[in-house]
Description:
Layout: H1 3-37, H2 56-63, H3 69-100, H4 106-116, H5 125-134, H6 141-165, H7 169-177, H8 182-193, H9 195-211, H10 214-219, H11 228-237, H12 244-276
Amino acid sequence: MSRKAKSTLEVTLIYLFLAFMAVIIGYPLLWTVGMSLNPGTSLYSAQLIPDNWSLVHYKWLFTDPSSDYLTWYKNSVIVAVANAFFSVVLTSFVAYAFSRYRFVGRKYGLYAFLLLQMFPAMMAMVAIYVMLNMVNLLDSLIGLTLIYIGGQIPFNAWLVKGYFDTIPKELDEAARIDGAGHLGVFFRIMLPLAKPILGVVALFNFMAPFVDFLLPRIILRNPENFTLALGLFNFISNQFDNNFTRFAAGSILIAVPIAIVYLLSQRFLISGLTAGGTKG
């Protein structure tokens, strides 16, 4: 086989694979959009392209008195913003300490971060429930937010530390010669240069409360405290519930804040993810 024919075959196979993956990803999404536009509520009578499409389910989510969708949306946004902000703050300090300082236990601390990422989150659910119950934070958004923030520190710190390692230490030394202290170096040198990786951390932690179901299911009991994933689950979880089209409409609207944050931070994503994994 000639080199040109081999290259053409490789390109063809790549495009076929991309088309196959696009169908796998796009088909469920198209069904969700189509289902949300169907006027009925049944899953089995829904059509991919409805004959008489309607926005009645979107209107119901925001206007019907029996719908708590706006409350769930507000709760999710509050938890997501708090999770993104405090995760960036705490992760920055932790990663800076491990990247720039040498102290007793540093090596084993990094190993602990790596080890904690190997265990599934399910292993900690019972301990999390008991701990929140002991401090009276069960069934509260504060307790849920604290678990999100603390649970992401090992992964985030390892990622940001790798990015901090790529920043030349000569910049720190030059700043100290000019009279900057430890906090001065951190806020004036490290943080401005680390915007790409911090944007990645903020996006990942902003997304988590919108799509996570298991942790809110264990912690939250009052419907007034539900997040979107948990609240939407109730549309279809009870024996006689048949709100699949409303569930689809609510699911589509989850993507709105995530898409906005992604568009605002997309210039940071590629450089942040690639640079964060270059050194360990």
